[in-house]
Amino acid sequence: MSGVVALLDAEDTSLFGSKAVGLGQALRDGLPVPPGVALAGPVVDAVAGSDAQAIEQVLESVRPLTGPLAVRSSAVDEDGAEASFAGQHLTLLNVTGEAGLTSAIGEIWWSANSDSAITYRQRVGLFTRPSVGVVVQALVDPETAGVMFTQNPITGADELVIEASWGLGEAVVAGRVIPDHYRVERTGEVLERTPGRKDVAFRSLADGGTREEQIAPERVEMLCLQDEQLAELCALADRCQQVYGPARDIEWAIADGTLYLLQCRAVTRAGL
Amino acid sequence: MSGAPIEVLRRVPLFADLNEDELTQVASVFKERRFSDGETVIQQGSGAAAFFVIVSGEATVFVDGKERRRLNEGDYFGEMALIDAGTRTATVVASSELLCSGVVFWDFRPVVEQNGAVGWKLLQSLIAIYRSEREAQAGSSQEPD
């Protein structure tokens, strides 16, 4: 089997990692995932080692993806039930150009082999060599993005918890803003909507990377999700649970009015 | 080309006695890593994963917050991580744009196991560090109050 496949064809977690296979399964189930390519661990290893053949294979595979890219790690033992690797591995947004992509893949390899990642692996009892897959996707440039838990990660209640902010979801994931906080019943009834304090948004830069943008004062505490969008997120949560099972941690984005699923993994309560 | 530049590795004392084939074998397991000016490369007290050789640029070594020395092209650091993946004994910060070649211990171990010359040089390097630190300790204990 090839070590470079369309995300749609990523089925083997031992090769591509749980993130790639999860996104591939989402596409196979008709979920709104941005198109992309999955790279197996050995391919990532070869690209990080400057192997010319592997680099050409990867560059060829991503040519159909237009515009800036999101490059995400998909470590083989990442996001398991026993240990959350969230924050240990790297996601690089708005990657442009062939050299930029090669460099991003190398950075992701090193993020899984960094001192902090190794220390963490040892702490949770993992002494094996990390195998890191990579997902390369077309980058969405969202008006609004965030995370959603299909079960309350604090109380365990059977309700959706949604956190949202302006721009790329990085602002929420990296804790750079106090996001809007919503709790929604499975029926769609909104139980709570608390405006956050979203004074910055991450936006893509044309030549790669992201920048922080100051939010206009009147939008800082304005709710960034309306009822219609909450209903769409509610439907997405239902579909994700049908596909993957209960208690999901979902990253999502809304760009040009379309809701995208960026990531879906099991909730790990230990880190909360 | 993949791996580390052989001409840079040849200047590393650790690999000085290796022949061309052995050096090529060692170089193949290295991977390039770039650091920005001011970026911390390794942090004292942190767990350790990789050994680095500087391909270009400069870095500064700090121990307990005090500057100890400057590193340049061909200098290397973190070799103890290749043996036990233990704790970093110094902090290294990039003092310019820094290009390194690095190898993690589970990629390097098979090389050492298959190549006694590399293992021997590594042992000598570690003994030199041990002696240097022991002499430094002896010197400080003899200083008058």
Helix and strand topology:
The complex is a heterodimer of chains A (272) and B (145).
Chain A: E1 4-6, H1 13-28, E2 36-39, H2 41-48, H3 52-62, E3 69-75, E4 91-95, H4 98-112, H5 115-123, E5 132-138, E6 144-149, E7 160-166, H6 170-173, E8 180-184, E9 190-194, E10 200-204, E11 210-214, H7 217-220, H8 227-244, E12 248-255, E13 258-266
Antiparallel strand pairs in A: 1-2, 2-5, 3-4, 3-5, 6-7, 6-12, 7-8, 8-9, 10-11, 12-13
Helix pairs in contact in A: 2-3, 2-4
Chain B: H1 6-10, H2 20-28, E1 31-35, E2 40-42, E3 50-56, E4 59-63, E5 66-71, E6 76-77, H3 81-84, E7 91-94, E8 98-104, H4 105-114, H5 116-141
Antiparallel strand pairs in B: 1-8, 2-7, 3-6, 3-8, 4-5, 4-7
Helix pairs in contact in B: 4-5
Q: Keyphrases for this structure?
A:
heterodimer; A: about 270 residues; alpha+beta; Dna Ligase, domain 1; D-amino Acid Aminotransferase, Chain A, domain 1; six-stranded antiparallel beta sheet; five-stranded antiparallel beta sheet; 8 helices; about 30% helix; B: about 140 residues; four-stranded antiparallel beta sheet; 8 strands; about 35% helix
Q: Report the count of strand segments of chain A.
A: 13
Mind telling me the C-alpha Rg of chain B? 16 Å
Give the % helix of chain B.
25-40%
CATH architecture of chain B: Sandwich
Notes on the protein architecture:
The complex is a heterodimer of chains A (272) and B (145). Chain A is an alpha+beta fold. Chain A folds into 2 domains: 4-138, ATP-grasp fold, A domain (Dna Ligase, domain 1, 2-Layer Sandwich); 144-271, ATP-grasp fold, B domain (D-amino Acid Aminotransferase, Chain A, domain 1, 2-Layer Sandwich), CATH 3.30.470.20. Helix content of chain A is 31%, strand content 28%. Chain A is built from 8 helices and 13 strands. Chain A has helices at residues 13-28, 41-48, 52-62, 98-112, 115-123, 170-173, 217-220, 227-244; strands at 4-6, 36-39, 69-75, 91-95, 132-138, 144-149, 160-166, 180-184, 190-194, 200-204, 210-214, 248-255, 258-266. In chain A, the strands form 3 sheets. In chain A, strands 9-8-7-6-12-13 form a 6-stranded antiparallel sheet. Chain A has a 5-stranded antiparallel sheet with strand order 1-2-5-3-4. Chain A has a two-stranded antiparallel sheet with strand order 10-11. In chain A, a hairpin with a 5-residue loop joins strand 8 and strand 9. In chain A, helix 2 (41-48) crosses helix 3 (52-62). The longest helix of chain A is centred in the last third of the chain and has 18 residues, at 227-244. Chain B has 145 residues and is an alpha+beta fold. Chain B has one domain (6-141): Jelly Rolls (Sandwich), CATH 2.60.120. Helix content of chain B is 37%, strand content 27%. In chain B, the strands form 2 sheets. Chain B has a 4-stranded antiparallel sheet. In chain B, helix 4 (105-114) packs across helix 5. The N and C termini of chain B lie far apart (57 Å).
